[in-house]
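Quick one before lunch.
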Amino acid sequence: MSRKILILPGDYIGPEIVTEARRVLELVNDKYQLELELEEALLGGAALDEYAVPLPEQTLARARDAEAILLGAVGGPKWDAVDRALRPEQGLLQIRSELQLFGNLRPALLYPQLAAASSLKPEVVAGLDILIVRELTGGIYFGEPRGIRVLENGERQGYNTCVYSESEIERIGRLAFASAVKRNGRLCSVDKSNVLEVSILWREVMDKLAPEYPDVELSHMYVDNAAMQLVKAPKQFDVLVTGNMFGDILSDAAAMLTGSIGMLPSASLDQQGRGMYEPCHGSAPDIAGQGKANPLATILSVAMMLRYTLDCTEAAEAVESAVSRVLDRGLRTADIFTAGQQLASTREMGGAVLGELGNE
Ligand code: NAD
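Model of the nicotinamide-adenine-dinucleotide complex:
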């Protein structure tokens, strides 16, 4: 039986990087006889232009039907004036929430070939390999009540609510423990339990789960300290698990440790392991249409799809090692370029990965 993969190119550089990632997916599909059936649909600004909504019903229906989704990126200045509820980014939030993609996995891995691209000293980051597990459908980004109200004295007040139920914490905790089992067995849970009740519960639930995973060493850290440790001594971490907003911020900081956001893939999973795979970066309107976008984060998102949803570790490793060999050869898109290397366009970078994969 064929397995459906939905491709959502999105906006600005989205279609450029997705084209390269799709070529990689098609090649591994043939090579490893995965019997994947690839189809495309519109999300974000592209959908807004065509259907007047950022997440059309037909896209959502196909997304529900698919085993995995490959997304480029959505949004950009073309839609800046659009009503907030209809902005392209809302389509992304909606699809994550509709599909209950509660678990966001963001690896921050520094390829040794790119150690010079990091803003930190090479000895601090060389060999960095951490995984941030972020809760994606709860917490303060979705909590009710929320809004801007007018107080009795006429002053306006903005408010949001950070809520996590035990079951929400437990399911992200289990995903994080299971990820740590597959890696180096160390899990650090990040919270703010010295101030927030929601974090006290978060910590209690993590502690309750720990005995079920005897091979994992659980520790806890306050989010302010975690931010500091990430830039001071990031290699102390293996897997970090945290809530929606803390994870949003920490994962961007971790991304920069690696030098380029153009290298970082991500996965957002539901409880059955089905997922949406996308680069960590946005639609980069400033470089769209110029062949400058780095397609490697999207290509590495395909590798994550192969590993986490399609259960084909062999193909995932083949893609990752093809990327590594292309970097060994000195090929670089502009975002990771340093003197002495060979500058490559989006298409050339994609083609080089395909070439390496084909040569295996
Ligand atoms: P961005 O990630 O698009 O760009 C930040 C910087 O990184 C830019 O200078 C860009 O040129 C560069 N960059 C990003 N991806 C790159 C790549 N693959 N290769 C080379 N350079 C790359 O963030 P932004 O500029 O804040 O946002 C632009 C738009 O993207 C906004 O509309 C934003 O809402 C949207 N966005 C979408 C997503 C998503 O779809 N998941 C995520 C973040 C931002």
